[in-house]
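Thread: Newbie trying to understand structure tokens

Hi all, I'm a second-year student working on a class project, and my supervisor (Dr. K.) asked me to get a predicted structure for one chain before our next meeting. I've only ever worked with sequences, so writing a 3D structure as a token string is new to me. If someone could post the tokens and maybe explain what I'm looking at, I'd be very grateful. Here's the chain:
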Amino acid sequence: MKNIYLRIKNRARQVVLSFPAQRFYENHENEHTLSRRIFETDPVINRLHEFVSENMGDNVGHGMNHVTKVTLDAGSLMYIEGESLNYPKNYIDSRVRLAQCSGLLHDIKRGQKNHAVKGAEFAKDILKDYREVSPEDITDIYNAIYNHEAFKTNLKTGTPEGDLVSDCLYDADKFRWGPDNFSHMVWDMLECSRTPLSRFIHLYPEGIKALKKIKTSFRTPTGKKYGPSFIDTGLAIGDRLYDIIKTEFAEYL
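---
Reply by user tm_fold:
Sure, no problem. This is what the structure looks like when written as tokens:
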């Protein structure tokens, strides 16, 4: 089974590469550069990244590859939205740190039931040892992680600034439901769960329906602008892969 999913994943990545890159990354290259700078140089992020890397594992298909992309995009979204709200630069940098802490920890309990709630509680406990992170900051990170699942009842953060951390994490995480879903996540999850290919293809149409619902769930202005394109690309990739699996891998169905 592992060999089958490896072959399908390699085929899927060929399909993903045949689609154009998302305009979000082209249009906001500067914000991505700034986000990566924080990711690579901030001592709190460096320490937390090391901790998560040592404790994450594959995590049901949501390992460090997923976490890193979410973290960088959450930071980019915070730069974009913070600048549009005319926040001072130093303040934006500090909020990017919170968005990235949320990104690093959001799936730390991914393999457990109610992983967002358990992850938020875990993050609160871990961050008490980080003197640079205030109790108010921990509350914003807690709420962001708690709120990152789709179609769930959200906690009220109490402040627009707290809402923004939460919304940036959510949108960055849901960007992954586009091309990344088919280049990495779905195959890693299936391999981890040892789901037979025949079962997967039977459930495929329902999965596509769930994917479509994400299009209208983005929360930040930037997420609402670019998020649907991520999902539309994912849907187009999904349709093409469905045909490929039904033909090229028919003997395993």
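A couple of things are worth pointing out once you decode it. The domain at 2-252 is CATH 1.10.3210.10 (Hypothetical protein af1432). The mean pLDDT is 93. Feel free to ask follow-ups in this thread.
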